[in-house]
Amino acid sequence: MSKISNLPDVEFYDIAEDNQKYIWLAANKGLFRYNGKNYKHFSSPQQRGNSLFQLKFDSKNRLWCNNIYGQLFYVENNSLKLFYDASKLVKGQLANFEILENSIRLFTVIGIFDIDKKTKQVTKLFKGMCITNAKDKRSNYTFIINFEGDLVRNRLYKFDNNTKIKILEITSSNRIQSPRIFAFENTIFFTHKSSNENVIYRIDKINNTSKKVLTPTRLKNETIYNVVNIENNYWFLTSSGVFIYSFENKVFTFKEQLFKTESITDVQVDFNNNYWFTTLDNGVFVSPNLNIRHVELSSIDSKITTSVALQNNQFILGTNDGKLLFYNQNQLIKTLQLPGKKIIGKLFFDSQSEKLIVSINASESFVVNLKNDEILDANNQFSVAKAFSKIDDNTMFYGNYRQGIVYKNPFNHPEKRILKESRVKASVVSNNHLFVSYIDGLYKYNTQTFNAEEITFNSKSLLVNTLAKTNGTVWIATQHNGLLKYENNTLKSSGIKFPKNHQINAIYTDGLVLWISTDAGLFQYNTKINQLKSLSGHDVFNTAVNDFLILQNQIIVSLPKAFYVLPKSVKLFKAFKIAKVRLEAVKINDRDTLVATKYKLPYNLNKIDISFNSNGFQSNQQVNYQYRVKELDTSWQNISLNTHFVTFNSLPSGTYTFELKAQNVSAKKAVFATPITFIIGKPFWEMYWFYGLVIVIIIGFIWLYFTWRLQQKERQRIAQIDKILIDKKITNLKLENLRSQMNPHFIFNALNSIQDYINSNEKELASSYLVKFSRLIRMYLDYSQQNEITLEAEFNALQLYLELEKIRFEDELEYKITIDNQLKTKQINVPSLFIQPYVENALKHGLLHKSNDRKLYIKAKIIQHNKLQITVEDNGIGRVQSEILKRPNQQHKPFATKANEERVHLYKNKLKRDIAITTNDLYDENDAAAGTKVVITMPIH
């Protein structure tokens, strides 16, 4: 076991297998459980000392054990629990115990006690020094020592339903050494050691009597640790290994000895018929197939190179140094040495003449007469042989590395006939034909004429490794076409389903049975029932088989330094079973959780790790697992060998059922684990309420959008209406401006001036005035159609207007228009005819009432924040005096100025254009009115 897994200890006392196929080991370091992969240590906080003994199961499959301190333990819910501390009863001695229905019966050096399982109440049943005990199905057999003065009375009692029956009494002055009782279904054995040797008694269970039996010679001086019954044989576990005896007619008959150098303490045969052996100082041994025996060639330094079967169970092994090793019943009985150290390549036994052909891997060969062991030098007659076949009593085929040869009278004046110049690989004789495989094809020869016929497959030559025959059928193992069979002159596939990539090395027949060796082990095929069986690593037969021998009742598989002995019986091939597949652990998002059959998880807990195992020896190497997840895939997915977990990194929302099955590589049926269902919830964004919320939000957004759009359109409609109204208002205001600018006084005065020029015969002046007047009227009419005009156009109209007004004032008017050079008058827009009303006010209400020194200044410049400032300044009589003068006469209302104020209001509030107008009265140093100053500021547009 130490080669397969890391054993936790080397000193083991007991071994047991539970109904879940766990292997339990009681060792010096404590209690361990093995699941086929690793060991789990069980201990209790109240435990004193590590060593535990006497593994037993109760009716609930709970494991019980004890220690030398008298503590009784049991395993439940994967933990070791203290049942009772009986240290005061056992007095430091390891006490036997038995598990009853309602109590634990303890056999100690002061008596027998029952400990109630529920109340832990102790009841004393018997007083005496109980040394050993054993129990069959109904009764307890106990060995008790009583002291009566100088005598020591050793008695064996049978306790049946609290009734004791004395079966044996041994009286002596000395205490009996190492007494042990072993109870079996049909018999009871009592052993002890006397001064010289072991003594064995057989107890008659029916008559309650005892009788000493003859102790086998091999057991007389051995330390007997245990006796077990396996397949009606009694296995004595001793310090010199295992002695196996049959017991018939009250006599032990020796069968064999196992593990001669080991101290075997216990044996367990598991559910797959693997044999487990615990030892006192060398760990645990496991034999997967006890029918297969391994024989080491430790006594010689030679290596085995070939072998041949003789009659019955005799065989010969040839070596690399010219030795012939003769075996009978697997025991070396004789050795012959050839002249010189020759590498023996092949052996052939002719049963008719009882001669052995020895082919050397050089230009030599020998013939050994087995009647007298005479060795004859045959020179190179049979050297470097590859195949031998006996055709008839006087004819033999011999093939070597370059020729196929037929010998007539091969041992006495042989006649040689070369069939083909080519390297031979194998040969066989069947139905009066010789079949020979060469490296360039397979040929069939008539054994009378030796006419050759090549056998092809699909019109191609065959490369054949080995040949064999059964009842007229020739079996042909090829390199590229698998195993074929030739019968009734027809070549076809054998129909035997070998595992993939298996190369056949040799085939031998045994009646209707084919024995086939491959690199993966040995196969047996029954041609009658078409049944294939195999021996492989699961049977600890994990070696490539190149050649082997078929004997009378066994098979010999030779290796360079050893050989295997395989019995030709049904026990050779095991029917493998599989333990229940257990889901050992489930991790969700890398966190361990309790194993359950159903999980309901939120969407974000969707990484699932599932660990599993099928208990059993080397189950990690011999069990193939497959899984499928319904709702994801209906096909089974393979899991790599020696892999015991499956991981799903991100399961989407849904319901999934994880199914797992396990199948032993050598078994036919699979075992299924309990399915697990995972319900992964949907994320909130996939829930119906979320869909509803999203729909509501979308509808809300749509409603808000369309409401906003309707409001926007309504605002646009209102804005358009406002704009129309504003435009209409501005147009009306411009018309009012135009009316003010084309008021009757101005037109009347202008026409009077023209008439005066005409009357005065000043035609040129009249024409010039008329041209200017018409241009001004045209400008007014043109600009009144526009909301805005350039600053240049505004000042051009203003210039023309002032020129006409200067004539009206008979040149008693001085005006000056100043424009800042930084102003781009052609690019700056201002409300049309916006400045003229303020100029007109300055002339009409400020300068008109002044007789002389009439001055008017108009300035345009850029001020801070990129604004345009226009100043209209006069030195007239001022606004106060002008109001006084116009009260008697209210005919000329300043409606142009009011119109401009309304225009300013519209520009500021509706068109968001910040236009400001301030009017300041000017005063001289005597605080007398000195004119008026109007300041217009507007953003440059």
Brief summary of the model shown:
With 941 residues, the chain is of the alpha+beta class. It has nine helices and 72 strands. Helix 4 packs antiparallel against helix 5 and helix 5 packs antiparallel against helix 6.
Structure overview:
With 941 residues, the chain is α+β, with helices and mostly antiparallel strands. The chain has 9 helices and 72 strands. Helix 4 packs across helix 6 and helix 5 (763-783) packs antiparallel against helix 6 (791-808). The longest helix is centred in the C-terminal third of the chain and has 54 residues, at 688-741.
Total DSSP helices: 9
- Overall pLDDT, averaged? 88
Residue stretches low in confidence (pLDDT < 50, at least 5 long) are: none
The total beta strand count reads 72
Instruction: Output the structural class.
Output: alpha+beta
Describe the global form.
elongated
Largest sheet: 6 strands, mixed
